[in-house]
Write a structure and sequence with these properties.
- The chain is an alpha+beta fold.
- It is built from 12 helices and 15 strands.
- Helix 1 crosses helix 4.
- It comes from Pseudomonas veronii.
Length: 433
């Protein structure tokens, strides 16, 4: 069984929306009360309250607050787990020496929604291809909310539900969404593959993808195209009084612009990754770490960084390209199509420095865009990297540990199919399309 997440748009009527808003306020109140209890217990008595301590008090709380009963015990428990996860993340950051970020109180306006951790208390009723209803609660007090959306799974079992509220800044109204995790059999996840190609891909900024045959996919540069408009809106907002009506209107326009950028990026990545897995039996690329690649160059007071502004621009382009999201999509889509996704170990393989013809290391600066090796191989740098990861992907799975990345001497000038020690991705869980 695989897990896939699908999202539906909900269309509650006026009374249902008022009721959902009231439920969000009650969940936010429970979250804040649990946070206050933890703070006061440690401040006054030095006692650390756990999730289980607070969960065991829920029956008593519902006796004094009967309006919490219709929310469901499991949904209330999930709200307490949400606070517990926030504290776990806080202690993890403290231990790692990072900025702690203590859990904060949340107003009902900023509380995004609530969750049902299992199928109890709700039911999805799919009607037709693009619509259906979501039942919340049971008995006479149950709500039947219309929903719109679809997914491609004929056989599934609902696992959990998250209801979220987002503000539509164009209309000023709230929109409700239901994200449902489905348990889907392997057979229902299958994607149809139309080809058996083997390709090497080098993801980059100048071009979003460079292939081993020299072809390329242009980088749409969603953020760069919107930067002039974004800068203009931010300058206008800076001249307004903070909290005023015009300030809020401009803030809403900025949010809408960022949402359009994110939607365009997600749509592009879904289309490109789907096209790749449909025609390829083997997809080879390198295992990138965008978080490390986009690290700030400011440095410290004792050791200030160099070319900080240029590095900030590069970081913006790296994050805008969505490498991490592309890897996630390729992983689960390749598994569903029966393709192999090979991620080369960048630190050991060094695709941008290695020659695809003789396997020798040829050091290059980032500004050098052509690969020139003493063996006579001259290729664009990104195409050479794509060929290197493709060679690394040709592997005999029954003989691990004898890969080319472990060789101490370069190979001959003739390219061969080497074995690899870098890992492949057999399966994963991710969002469905």
């Amino acid at each position: 069984m695989q897990r896939r997440k699908v999202t539906f748009r909900l269309y509650p009527n006026v009374s249902q929306q008022e009721r959902l808003d009231g439920w969000v306020r009650l969940h936010a109140e429970l979250y804040n009360a649990a946070l206050q209890e933890r703070i006061e217990a440690y401040r006054k008595a030095g006692i650390s309250i756990s999730y289980y301590d607070q969960q065991n008090t829920l029956p008593v709380i519902k006796q004094f607050r009967p309006e919490l009963v219709e929310l469901g015990s499991h949904a209330l428990q999930e709200t307490l787990r949400r606070l517990d996860r926030a504290f776990q993340a806080f202690f993890r950051r403290v231990k790692a020496g990072q900025s702690p970020g203590f859990p904060r109180f949340k107003s009902s306006a900023r509380y995004s929604g609530f969750s049902y951790p299992d199928p109890a208390g709700w039911k999805l009723q799919q009607l037709g291809q693009r619509g259906g209803t979501l039942r919340l609660g049971s008995g006479k007090g149950a709500m039947m909310i219309r929903l719109r959306g679809r997914h491609r799974f004929a056989d599934f079992t609902p696992n959990d539900l998250t209801l979220s509220r987002r503000r539509n800044h164009a209309t000023g109204q709230d929109q409700w969404y239901a994200s449902i995790t489905l348990r889907v059999p392997e057979s229902a996840c299958r994607r149809e593959r139309t080809g058996d190609d083997a390709i090497g891909i080098d993801l980059g900024v100048s071009h979003w993808a460079n292939f081993d045959d020299g072809s390329q996919i242009e980088n749409p540069r969603w953020l760069r195209e919107a930067l002039p408009q974004l800068a203009n809106l931010q300058r206008q907002r800076a001249r307004r009084k903070r909290g005023s009506h015009r300030y809020r209107l401009l803030s809403q326009e900025i949010i809408r612009l960022h949402q359009r950028i994110a939607d365009g990026r997600r749509d592009f990545l879904h289309k490109q990754t789907t096209s790749l897995v449909q025609r390829c039996a083997l997809i080879a690329t390198e295992e990138l770490q965008p978080q490390n690649m986009s690290r700030s160059a400011k440095g410290t007071v004792e050791k200030p960084g160099r070319r900080v502004r240029q590095k900030a621009g590069l970081n913006r382009e790296i994050l805008s390209a969505g490498f991490s999201m592309a890897h996630q999509m390729l992983t689960y889509k390749a598994h569903e199509a029966g393709s192999v996704l090979h991620l080369s170990d960048t630190r050991r393989l060094k695709p941008s420095q290695r020659c695809s013809a003789c396997w020798a290391i040829v050091p290059k600066l980032l500004s050098e865009r052509m690969h020139r090796c003493a063996c006579g191989c001259v290729l664009p740098r990104d195409q050479n990297s794509a060929r290197v990861v493709l060679l690394d992907a040709w592997i005999l799975q029954d003989t691990p540990g004898t890969g080319v990345t472990a060789r101490l001497k370069p190979l001959s000038a003739q390219a061969v199919k080497p074995k690899s020690t870098t890992r492949e991705i057999p399966t994963t869980t991710a969002h469905a399309v």
